[in-house]
Design brief:
256 residues, mainly beta, Thrombin, subunit H, eight-stranded antiparallel sheet, six-stranded antiparallel beta barrel, 8% helix, 39% strand, globular
Amino acid sequence: MGPIATPSFRSLLLQPRFDDTALGWATGFVVTAKSGHALMTARHVVTGRHQDTGVPLHKMQAIPNNLTIFHHKKEQPLRWIEVVEPLLRDGLPLWKEHPELGAKVDFVALPLTQLRDVQMHPYDPSKPSEFEHGTLYETISVGPADPVSVIGFPFGMTAGGKLPIWATGSLATEPIVSFRDLPLSLVDCRTRPGQSGSPVIAYRNRGVTPTTDGGATDFGYPAWQFLGIYSGRINAESDLGMLWKAQALAQLIESM
């Protein structure tokens, strides 16, 4: 058995709650802003409302006021601790939205305050190309029909411990274009509730991989391109899902 892939450490299981009542499952991941660490997830996860209609998602109309995060325990690999972060203070949201697009985009960053005994495994959307030993200087080429992975927790299920499940599909739109005139691409991937807020990456095992400069590089180690955050399917009848682009996430982080 080989080592665990670094991206498997970066997806975190989330449980939105109203007080002590669980309202479902979701996924998130840590990023680092100037102000400190933050959790990125889908906006509808923290609002508890459908992103387009504003209708409460829970059958009892409950809206979350806190978020349980299953963080990695500091200096103890494959151990996790439950941490509760408030979502509201005096009725006002604690999460941050995109500085220009605000509620038009289905992703947010929640500043983290409960970090005692927590081990961070952050993504950096401003430097999306990585390999198992650092940051790549080359950018992995990803286009329509190329495989991409949504790494999260369908129905709150885990792969073992609190490790995520990799759902792999393909990029469904040209990365240079913007779906609905927003920083949004589509992926063709069979996903389910609980995967909202998952990081989406193009993961390539060791070997020759095409790069955006028109060439190819033999990385020698697994390498990946962080593409953005997944926020759910375009409708219940489709396997097409929404991928908010890494550069838009980087803009939010830079504004914090």
